[in-house]
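Shipment paperwork, digital attachment
Item: protein structure file
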Amino acid sequence: MSEQKTGTPLLKVQDIHVYYGAIHAIKGISLEVHENEIVTLIGANGAGKSTTLNTIAGLLRPRQGTVELNGAPIQGLGASRTVGMGLSLCPEGRRIFQQMTVRENLEMGAYTRSAAEIPDSLAEMFERFPRLKEREKQIAGTLSGGEQQMLAMARALMSRPRLLMLDEPSMGLAPILVEQIFSIITELHASGVTVLLVEQNAQMALQVADRAYVMETGLITMQGSASDLLHNDAVRRAYLGS
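Attachment content:
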């Protein structure tokens, strides 16, 4: 499904080690994401997938190793700086601002942008997510789970990222909404958004991705084209229930 990429990757993670106190959570992993790819990171709960995204985003600082965005080192800069450099994280659990309206949540996603740029971005998000336009003035905490996930994704897109990182976008959603979220991810990719996806639903993730990495207990144990891993017997037994 995907050829080996050459050239400078948009994101390059090299030998990062991350600790929570004495716990060695990430044990020297390396990965790359190239422009216009969907790359997925799959693995069991506790494998370190969310920790990896949080470290890339600047929410955690690696004790060792480097993270580069478009060739520039970003490890340790902090999340507010990395957003301004073109990286946006849609976090696990959505983390929307529950007491704010849909529109206010979206505006919060554009805090690195100039005031003049925000109306066009809002219009773009309302066109991409018509349900949010219908609920523009509604308090975000009253939205359904699927609507909250759409809002979290739209808020992350308001900064116009070069790389969008999605952490468990289908978590807790009914199957029909999972299909809808993955359809949106595919549409985003078709419009030129590069995506790094962490997802429990390995089957769906491998179906939409170009390449994939498998994580186990803080290590990357397998990598390759998503189509190859989708048909790999060990991956199928461990993550696809077959």
